Amino acid sequence: xxxxxxxxxxxxxxxxxxxxxxxxxxxxxxxxxxxxxxxxxxxxxxxxxxxxxxxxxxxxxxxxxxxxxxxxxxxxxxxxxxxxxxxxxxxxxxxxxxxxxxxxxxxxxxxxxxxx
Length: 116
What we know:
This protein has 116 residues and is α+β, with helices and mostly antiparallel strands. The chain has a domain at 4-70. The chain has one helix and six strands. It has one helix spanning 97-115; strands at residues 4-7, 17-21, 27-31, 43-46, 56-60, 66-70. The longest helix has 19 residues, at 97-115. It is elongated. The termini are far apart.
């Protein structure tokens, strides 16, 4: 990832907070959610006003400056779907499962009686 420094700000990151570049190009932070506790609302940390370019990812680096890197688009290629076959309707047939269940129940009862 070849990152390019966009603006030198030098903010100090506080533990437990998430720092990001918001839509206006300023640095904001929000308290991170932990367990049952919800995160906090975002607060502006520094007004920078960076003009964002489409296709680039903007982030705060280790030194507290705004950097950007070209977004990697791609990944695993999807296979093309085969032509769908027309589904043929089948006639609904009633199954006589009640007799089979009854036969199974009687068989289990007989075995139980023999064991006693």
